[in-house]
Amino acid sequence: MTLKHSLWAFALLLPFLTHASDGDSVSYNKKLSLGVRSTVSLFNPDNNGSVGTGVGGQMRIRFSKRLNTEWFADYITSGYGPDAFRRDMHIGWSVMFYPGAFAPKPGSFNPYIVAGHCFDYSSVYTTT
Predict the structure, then answer these.
(1) Which of 6, 62, 86, 121 could anchor a disulfide with 80, C-beta 3.0 to 4.6 Å?
(2) Which long-range contacts (CB under 8 A, 24 or more apart) does 97-101 make?
(3) 3-state class of 117 per DSSP?
(4) Host H or E run for residue 9
């Protein structure tokens, strides 16, 4: 990954890192949340600066005050050299556990332990 790609990734993530939560949007009584995702992929092996972009969906299912899960799927397309393109599909999940004295409180800093997995499928096609 080049410095240019790293800066783009940071710029895209910055609004999410600095967003302060209003107390109303974080409801711990809510068991299901649905959302859409926009995706940027910087994992192409070519040196042409090819950045993949895509779209996806996600949902969160809260099982208890200290246990939350997230499920997602993405579809990404990108250039792959001068005569090919690439399609990637990602499906994954993660489990977030809020330990000990760090029970989640709306509007406050809530550290958690996360574990998860992602399944990827990539295919490359020629354009000629």
Answers:
(1) 86
(2) 97/66, 97/67, 98/65, 98/66, 98/67, 98/68, 99/66
(3) strand
(4) helix 3-18
> Rounded to whole angstroms, how far apart are CA atoms 55 and 33?
18
User: Rounded to whole angstroms, how far apart are CA atoms 43 and 39?
Assistant: 12
pTM of the model: 0.64
CB 26 within 8 A of CB 10: no
- 79, 16, 13: which is closest to 43 by C-alpha? 79
Residue type, 74: D
Q: Which two tokens stand for residue 28?
A: 């711990």
- Full DSSP string of 36-62: EEEEEE----SSS---EEEEEEEEEEE
Q: How confident is the model at residue 73 (pLDDT cuts 50, 70, 90)?
A: very high
Answer yes or no: are the C-beta atoms of 39 and 57 closer than 8 Å.
no
Q: For residue 125, give Cα distances in angstroms to 51, 65, 75, 87, 122.
A: 16, 46, 15, 8, 10
**Three-class DSSP category at 112:** coil
